[in-house]
UniProtKB/TrEMBL annotation:
The lineage of its organism: Bacteria, Bacillati, Cyanobacteriota, Cyanophyceae, Nostocales. It comes from the Bacteria. InterPro entries: GalU_uridylyltTrfase_bac/arc (IPR005771), NTP_transferase_dom (IPR005835), Nucleotide-diphossugar_trans (IPR029044). This is UTP--glucose-1-phosphate uridylyltransferase. Transmembrane segments: none annotated. Residues 8-289 form the Nucleotidyl transferase domain. It comes from Komarekiella delphini-convector SJRDD-AB1. GO terms for biological process: UDP-alpha-D-glucose metabolic process.
Length: 296
């Protein structure tokens, strides 16, 4: 298979944020503030876009609800009002101009019907076209343990293996109900895995029976970290589910299509050298506010 350059990232941000209600009645969860390592308050979505651009991505597509398009456009495309800009510190004036430059690389896409995460990804199909792309969760931020960002690590693995890559992290059995989980065969111990199955939020019983991996502790499993490098064939499997109205838990899901992609094309798992911070749940968001700025 011919290797194609990865130029685009997709960030689904069209959910209702029900787990953060009532705050999400007035503020989209992707616009909740976090404090970065420089002490700057910024919306979560801005930190995710910065992660993508710093990894070498040229264009970022953000999938939003139609009613939210204007507020996302305002963040990335419009400068602050003159009165506000005049009151900003010189550093924040410079940062404001930087956001406008980022905005030139951002396209706002829409999901007309909120029919699940897989459906939101599918809404980026025409924009992505026939290219591999980086898929990023809209409520996760990352810090790397190395000089390479977490997203850059995933892109580098894709360049080595030339097939879809799912980022992974180790989780205890008691956390499996919150995450997608994979199993497979180590290609490079504790780093790179040939994935043989993906499963969304397995029970502990299913995980112990089907998702165990050699060389890992008995109560430890590999779960999805939140970054994917996907070939465009994923859209074919998503389209098949949508056309057949095949829903899981009432919505069009991504993980079962990822498993199909794995079976058809093969998939590599990569244990990221870094940390993932969830901003989509109240307790997790609270902990992210404490830890994200101070992580080493």
């Amino acid at each position: 298979m011919q290797k194609k350059q990865v130029n685009k990232a997709v960030i689904p941000a069209a959910g209702f944020g029900t787990r953060l209600f009532p705050a999400t009645k007035v503020v989209k969860k992707e616009l909740f503030p976090i404090i970065d390592q420089d002490g700057r308050a910024k919306p979560v979505i801005l930190a995710i876009v910065e992660e993508a651009i710093s990894a070498g991505i040229a264009e970022v597509g953000i999938v939003v609800q139609p009613d939210d398009q204007e507020i996302f456009e305002d963040l990335f495309k419009n400068p602050p009002k003159k009165e506000l800009f005049a009151k900003l510190s010189p550093q924040n004036q410079e940062y404001s101009q930087y956001i406008q430059e980022l905005g030139n690389k951002v396209t706002i896409l829409t999901q007309e019907e909120q029919a699940g995460y897989g459906h939101a990804v599918f809404c980026a199909k025409n924009w992505v076209q026939d290219e591999p792309f980086l898929l990023m969760l809209g409520d996760h931020v990352y810090t790397s343990d190395t000089e390479k960002s977490c997203a850059r690590q995933v892109l580098d693995v894709y360049e080595q293996v030339n097939k879809s890559v799912v980022s992974l992290t180790k989780m205890s059995a008691e956390m499996l109900h919150k995450a997608g989980c994979v199993t497979g065969v180590w290609q490079k111990s504790n780093s790179i895995l040939e994935v043989t199955q993906l499963f969304e939020k397995p029970t502990i019983e299913y995980a112990y029976q089907h998702l165990r991996i050699e060389e890992m502790a008995e109560d430890e499993f590999l779960c999805i970290f939140g970054l994917y490098l996907l070939t465009p064939q994923i859209f074919d499997f998503l389209a098949a589910h949508i056309n057949k109205n095949f829903r899981e838990r009432g919505e069009f899901q991504l993980t079962s299509c990822l498993d199909r992609l794995c079976q058809e094309e093969g998939m590599t798992g990569y244990v990221v050298k870094g940390k993932c911070f969830d901003t989509g749940l109240p307790d997790a968001y609270h902990q992210t506010m404490i830890d994200f700025r101070n992580v080493s």
